[in-house]
Write a structure and sequence with these properties.
single chain, mainly alpha, Rhomboid-like fold, two-stranded antiparallel sheet, 1% strand, transmembrane helix
Length: 420
């Protein structure tokens, strides 16, 4: 058996090496898990990270009011620090043994058809580029995949082109194999849609298209063949800006939170947090840190007060936000400041202000003296039908200090045990 395996590896060294790296990393992950003495998922994720994969690690700010595991603000911080090579390494990692076996079988079958028909250096370059390129689209969707399936689909697309000019290959790689491959590509979308498996479909499609394009360029025999090949080679330079954008995702609010976390200048940190909150208003830690950062710079912390209240309106079960709000409230020393702060509460929470006065444990004497006006409840004919969805939670639990009435439009508003 081992002699046959050695013979196969010597005949297809590039394909064998491609598979061997994946198998080696998988075994290394298992060894790490055994040494830790537990098969927990967190240990598995840690092993992937230590062995070079991209992992959406969770960090919390060291302020005592927001140092907890709930509502984590995380992201691929290693990528944001410039470790772009982790994208390629992630391709060689696999989620479990079945995932590894399926990819290795597919690559072994496809590789033995491709390797004899390509120069070794060109075939190796194709596999590396296909693995890297196929994973890039996933990161634009904030997905963090592992596996060589994108590379396998690139090999599949390449063979579809090669068989057009190679009759011997067409006899072995028939229409039946093509139907099976395309059927599996579509079936993966179905599995993902139904929630059966979370599959990196963007990696599959991008790998497949890359293989088709590479094959179309390599089999071209027109007078423009040389120009097409040179253009295709230089097109790989687009990987540089694409990779740069993944490492600097200016559209991602969490990225600005990451920049703020590593920024010493308080003014610049506040600007980063403002941008982060603008892009990701549902991330409570971004708003919490912005409120605390402003709180440190303000004599009268009304901006930080309004920000933390807006944050609580969107994240109603975020208890640490309540603690921060109480901290800021203590800085309103005069009755005039407290009255103004109460008006902000009424403006932000409207008809729910009474419940929030109690939950925030604000000064009841000040509330009574302030006579804060609350928005009037519409009581016109038929208004019970128009506003029923908004008012029913208030009538059921008007004084629920743990989680004020749930806003069905906000997915962050559900407290534990509440169904939206």
């Amino acid at each position: 058996m081992f002699q046959n395996l050695r013979k196969i590896c010597s005949k297809y060294p590039i394909t064998a090496s491609y598979i061997a790296v994946a198998v080696g990393l998988f075994l290394a992950v298992q060894v790490y898990r055994i040494k830790q003495g537990t098969p927990a998922d967190s240990v598995f994720d840690t092993a992937l990270w230590k062995l070079g994969a991209v992992q959406p690690l969770v960090f919390v700010y060291d302020h005592p009011l927001i140092k907890e595991d709930d509502f984590p603000t995380g992201g691929p911080f290693d990528l944001w620090a410039g470790e772009w090579w982790r994208i390629l390494v992630s391709g060689f990692h696999h989620g479990d043994l079945l995932h590894l076996l399926m990819n290795c079988i597919a690559i072994g079958y496809l590789g033995r058809l491709i390797e004899p028909r390509m120069r070794s250096w060109l075939y190796a370059a194709f596999l590396i580029l296909a693995t890297f390129i196929s994973l890039l689209p996933e990161y634009y969707f904030d997905h963090y995949p592992v596996g060589l399936s994108g590379g396998a689909f690139a090999m599949f697309g390449l063979l579809m082109m090669f068989r057009k000019i190679d009759p011997d290959l067409a006899e072995e790689f028939t229409e039946r194999e093509i139907t099976w491959g395309l059927g599996w590509l579509i079936l993966c979308f179905v599995f993902t849609y139904l929630g059966i498996l979370h599959i990196a479909n963007a990696a599959h499609v991008s790998g497949f298209l890359y293989g088709l394009l590479a094959g179309a360029v390599l089999i071209n025999r027109s007078r423009y063949a040389g120009l097409l090949r040179v253009s295709f080679v230089f097109a790989q330079l687009l990987l540089i800006p694409c990779t740069y954008l993944i490492c600097h995702p200016v559209w991602n609010g969490k990225y600005y939170w990451y920049l703020a976390r590593h920024e010493d200048d308080l003014t610049q940190r506040i600007e980063y947090l403002r941008k982060g909150m603008e892009l990701a208003p549902g991330e409570p830690k971004i708003g919490a840190e912005l409120a605390l950062s402003l709180y440190r710079t303000e004599g009268e912390p009304f901006r930080s007060w309004e920000i933390i209240l807006q944050l609580l309106k969107q994240n109603r079960s975020y208890d640490k936000g309540v603690e921060i709000a109480r901290l800021i409230w203590k800085q309103f020393g005069s009755e005039q400041q407290k009255t103004k702060a109460l008006e902000v509460v009424a403006d932000v929470f409207g008809d729910e202000s009474d419940a929030w006065f109690e939950r925030l444990q604000l000064d009841q004497a000040t509330i009574a003296q302030a006579e804060v006006p609350l928005p009037e409840v519409v009581d016109a004919p038929g208004s019970d039908l128009l506003f029923r969805k908004q008012t029913e939670p208030q009538t059921i639990r008007p004084r629920d200090l743990t989680a004020p009435p749930v806003d069905p439009r906000s997915p962050q508003s559900a407290a534990e045990g509440v169904s939206l």
